[in-house]
Amino acid sequence: KVRFHDIDVSRSAAASRDSKSKALLPGSKNRSRQKNYIHNSSNNAELGQAKAINKELIDAGSAQEVLDIFISKGGAKGTAGGNVFNSVNFSTCLHRLARFVNQHDHSHNHKIKKGTQPTIQKTHTVDEKRRSVLSDPRTAILIAALSEAIVENKSNDALLFNNRELANLGWAIAKLKVAPPSNVYPVVRSKSFFQHLDATNETKNNTDIIFSSIEDMHQDILMTAAKVRREVLEVAKERNLLKTPAERAAVKNKWIPTLSQLSGKLLDMIATKVLGMLKDFNSQELANLLYAFASAGRADLLLFESLSDQLVINMQDKSKLNSKDKRLRPKPQEFSNSVWAFASAGLRGDGQVKLIEGVADILDHDNGAIVQDFKPQELSNTAWGVATLLAKRGSEQVPSYKRENQAALRILRWVAKSIEERVEEFKPQEISNSVWAFATVGFGISSSAVQLNTNNEYIYLESDSEEADRVLVSRVLNIVADSSMNRLHRFRPQELNNLAWGICRLGCNGGKMDQLFEGVGQELMKRHSYFKPQDIGTTLWSFATFEYFDEDVYRSAASELTLRKSRSFKPQELSNTVWALATAGVIPQYADAFDTTIIPKAKRPSLSEVTSDPITECFAAATTELMRRPHEFKAQEIKDVLWSLSKASIRHPGVFKRVAEHLVGSDADFENGILGRGMDGFSPQGLGNLAWAYAKQAQLAAAVNESTIGSTGRLAVYETSCLDVGENLVRRLFSRIAETGIENIHRFKPQDLSNTCWAFSTLGLLHNVFFQRVHQEVIGRLLVPRDSQAAVIKFKAQEIANLVWSFATLNVEASSMIEKFTPFIVQMCSNDNGEYTEESIARYIKRQEVANLAWSCAVLGEYPDDLMPLLYTALFGKVCKGDPDYLKKVYGDDGIQKQTIMTMFYVQMALHIEAPDLGLSLPYGFPSGWQESDTRTKRQKVIDNETGSTMLQITTSKLQQNISRTLKKIGFDHRIEHLISTDDLQSEYGISLSSINQEFLSLDIANIDKMIGIEVDGPGHFVNILDGDESDDTASNNIGGVMRIGKGKTGWEFTANSQQKINGPTALKHRLMSHLGWKILHIPYFDWRQEKDGEDYCRRLLSDL
What we know:
Elements: E1 3-4, E2 7-8, H1 28-40, H2 44-59, H3 63-72, H4 87-102, H5 126-134, H6 137-150, H7 163-176, E3 187-190, E4 209-212, H8 214-240, H9 245-249, H10 256-275, H11 283-296, H12 301-319, H13 332-345, H14 350-364, H15 376-391, H16 399-422, H17 428-441, H18 447-451, H19 466-484, H20 493-506, H21 513-527, H22 533-546, H23 551-558, H24 571-584, H25 607-612, H26 614-628, H27 635-647, H28 653-664, H29 667-671, H30 684-699, H31 713-724, H32 727-743, H33 750-762, E5 765-766, H34 768-782, H35 797-809, H36 817-829, H37 838-842, H38 847-860, H39 867-876, H40 884-891, H41 898-914, H42 938-944, H43 958-969, E6 975-981, H44 982-989, E7 999-1007, E8 1012-1017, E9 1022-1025, E10 1042-1046, E11 1049-1053, E12 1060-1062, H45 1064-1075, E13 1079-1084, H46 1085-1090, H47 1094-1103
Parallel strand pairs: 3-4, 5-9, 8-13
Antiparallel strand pairs: 1-2, 6-7, 7-8, 9-12, 10-11
Helix pairs in contact: 2-4, 3-4, 4-5, 4-7, 6-8, 6-10, 7-10, 7-11, 8-10, 11-12, 11-13, 12-14, 13-14, 13-15, 14-16, 15-16, 15-17, 16-17, 16-19, 17-19, 17-20, 20-21, 20-22, 21-23, 22-24, 24-26, 24-27, 26-28, 27-30, 28-32, 30-31, 30-33, 32-34, 33-35, 34-36, 35-38, 38-39, 38-41, 41-45
């Protein structure tokens, strides 16, 4: 033995024990023995000694005094307490130790011995006290002795632990936080208790559980306890050889890991004993055990189902007693702790459902007589636990879910009513947790709101009293808002976060909510440095969702997300923050800082400038982390970051290329058969927003000052996309988006369909099968009866316009789509009298969307009789008789965009030729007075105008000049850039478009006498087909294009690929020119590149005439 802090450390604790002694299952015989020892022991001296020790332990004023008593009374001598400590003493000792560790220091709580003067002691945090106690070797010996005692040969009646003692020990070990969770050190359970269970039981299949015999569990505990003693001894020896206190303090307490393992094994043995004597436990003890094993992270379904089953039986027995007598009522803490335990452990099963039902039944008993016994904390904990359990359910439908849902509703109603009646009793944490619980399960949300938000992963607790619940929750939230306003300063950041998120999720607006959000915003500004990353991200998300836009608040919060701190932020925190900034329209000062494609390095903002603006640095931090660790980001988080960049008009080619390579593999990866992460996890909304973000990035280039892109219009968008990401990489990415979308097309909301199709068409990419499935899906939905539940989700005007525009732009047949949309559009644009006017139309659709619809009709050659007059009324008025100023007021805009002016000349020409019976015409003097002013910035115009169909961009390419020279060599007389104006159409073809002459048609090369037109079709005239014929050699060309630089401008030389077809604008122009009698020939850029003899090619082309 070695002397160490007055501890006698035995060298052979386990060796002195009979390792082959048979361990009995704890049962009725053992329990009767223990009672016999306590009440009828002949050894009154031992019993008296045990009582005296227990009294001293109870009177102890600190953890150190408890350990002193354990040592001074001989508990450390020998094994299992040295025949001095009995089961009651061990239970009291550890329980008191845990209580002292977890209580806050208050001078009046410390007992002062008689005749001594009180001393002022330094206060310590709970963690500090816990570390101090666990690093004390006396604690290690105490737990070793306890472990030896709990597996003591059952002939020793003094060490037969009863129900109360086992419950107290479990609670104490959990509070000391010394046992390892099951994912660190597996749970061990006795095989004996599984003999009557089905082999497929979830617990038996749990990889974190090991099954063993009780004899082996006993032996393992004894060996581990001996190891703890041995390691304490070794440290004592080592320290005894050192001279100074500093040297001795430097020796590590190497027994701590072993002590942790021993504590876990001790908890497992307690579980084994508890399962053998369940009926002996009262409700409080069962609830404490559930709490203990959940807190320690060593819970399993068998244990929890068994404990909860017995707890429900006990509660039901109590509920039959006189509920007027509070002493006989079940204790509210038993309910809240038990529900909390299941939720924290993440365990679900039939026993847990029965527990929820049992709690609901007791709350309902005698019209809620027991509810007043609940403290606010117990109510909020119960609500939190119920919501957490429901949120952890799988997507499968289980029969018990319906019972659980009804029980959960009953519980949440009582919690809501209690808040309504005594809100001032609820502390900030209790308020925020309750609101969080309501929001997590959608308690109080209408079913129609849920159907309109199908893209999120929130659960919805379907109610049999939906309207009553909605009114109740709305009333409670307003009471909460009113009560919280004057004490928001007492809310911790997480509580403010949960409160704001819950109100947003529940969709409560008006009343006190605006003031509440303003108050939360002010608290965020004052205390932003105290907000954790999660609180910043989610709170800003709530602000943006609620449409609370105070830029100072956003800037203050964003200042916490810096490049220096970014690694400490989780992906969700990063994505939520930038999503909120973009949604709120908080624009960074240096939006061009990341555009490495088209802005020269010398003209980009420096790092010091980036970090001087919190919003710019916030976006920099989020994108840096996404590029550094994309594998840590969930699909939604990736989508949110990219969407935020495009929404905020921030071009960032680096992160977009990095994400594309992460999702579908780089070009080098693809050649080696590596396909990337894929699209698993992307919801329909995620796919649509991802595609939209990529297309928008390319479109934003037109708004960049100092751009090096040499081309304009549609070609500039195509080239920018290739320069940013890479031609083949973009195609692979969008192919994968289409393939994933095809599998889930029925889950796409109208906005998802619209965003995805718009993105494909903007980048000139066509996946035939995807667009066919979209067409079928849209037609199918439009054929559903309007009064059907499936027709609740309606198409918005922008969604219709973008969908039809996408089909038209890609030159994809959309047979009957416009026709099927027409009745719906007319209905939405009509007033209560069933008629449409400029005012009723303006409430549903914008003029730009109207123009896109009209242009799409012309491209697709469909002119529904009911739709076209409505579109012309929307654009030019009917009652106002073509007054442009009046329509500006009606629409709240600045007039018709330039692109729309050009579009309508094409539309009117097509109507004049192909649908003259409609009798529609442009206003007299059009476009004078109709076009918007040029006061808006270039960037704003690009942001607002996401779809355009202008054709008149007069530029003469080198390819065009080269072909012209070749044609002259073979004697074909022609003119380059032949323009046709509205006066020409009037005088030569009798087509009246405008009283003001406008040039809007052109031919690249024209022989006017013979009316032969040759169009030199560059990449901007074509659609790239992603799912073409794979047998075509050119279709499998994976080389891709190359960047070209000349005269300070950057462009992209596209790959020659026959898997292309002309786009909608080109097809419309060809059709209109053919109506005028022109013979139109086309020279695709890829054909011309492949020809070695240009003159021969031109002769063959002309000979085809």
